[in-house]
């Protein structure tokens, strides 16, 4: 799903290519979190920005997510060269929206998410082999942290 990773002094940006060959969506990756604007979420699920706004409103009103925990403002340079503070929404918000939106892309997202959850429920783990092989989305300590968790599980099984 990921084309390449670009590093930058302020943030990391990841470029996602849609499965159907639609335009790329560039998201912000900062502090081990993915951040998208409403415009990008609308592009991702192939719906209008007002649709995304309406779903976010209901998500916050219902208490599914707390607004302050999933929103962060980032400076964006617009076409006019000026910087504007723009709300970005984290992956929790994107996932919640993906389960509410009615579009072909949202359905594809739900099918993918269901497969991942099913694999996790059946096996107790999920591995994104392509991401691990390419090193995409992984911080410098990722493999050390993963190995430490595996060792801890292995040792706890030996004690039983």
TrEMBL record:
InterPro entries: BRO_N_domain, Virulence_RhuM-like
Pfam families named among the record's database cross-references: Virulence_RhuM (PF13310)
PANTHER family in the record: CYTOPLASMIC PROTEIN (PTHR35810:SF1), CYTOPLASMIC PROTEIN-RELATED (PTHR35810)
Protein name, per record: Virulence protein
Domain Bro-N, chain residue ranges per copy: 7-124
